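Methods — Computational structure assignment.
A single polypeptide chain was analysed. Its primary sequence is given first, followed by the predicted tertiary structure written as structure tokens.
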Amino acid sequence: MAYNGGPAFNSLTKGYTARGIPWEVGRNVATVYNLGCMNFTARQRAILAGTILGDAFVQQTGSKNARLRLEHGEKQKEYLLWKGQQFPKLFNGSPERIERVHPITKKTYTYWRWQSNATPELGKWRAQFYPDGKKRIPTNLASYVSSPLALAVWYMDDGYYSPIQKHSFLYLGRVTRSEAEYAAEAIRGNFDLTSRIYDKKNKGFALFFPVAETKKLHALVASEVLPSLKYKLSLTP
């Protein structure tokens, strides 16, 4: 059964705080509320930026709080687990396996979902990336994607490599052309990588990296790409 929006289940919990955050046996309320003043490390901020730009959803849970929802297909369960493990204070319990039948093809799709606790800090990230309730690429994107790790996570989420033509795409989804330009400029300015904006019509915009730029891109992110996603790199033997 899909997650119904209630507090995340944890086999060790005894109850929930007023904010819906599970507390463990023997854990006092003051400890729980420390989630509210959580400060992410530089590494966590990079991973968070990459995954929000990619497949994650930052869900509003109150006037100031939000939680992170991770969803990946069956073959990318390892990747989902890796993401959650980078934020041990945010994620507890285990991811949920979900099956869904496509309304047209009637084919059954299986994917994994893992939702974090809600915190004010994630609420601030939602305000930046969902200013009107819809995911946007902010004008100050360069300040969020300033490390190869952030770019690597974004590429692992939404990147595509053609081993035949040896070029790459970074899919942006249904954003505006101006937002696509923010993305291209942030990557060019921070990493000296030049891309072209492609309009994929019903699939939205994407950044296209020709062969030479693909080599630079892959060399930059290769050390951060998980083994199960190495197929997205031209450096794969």
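Note: The radius of gyration is 19 Å.
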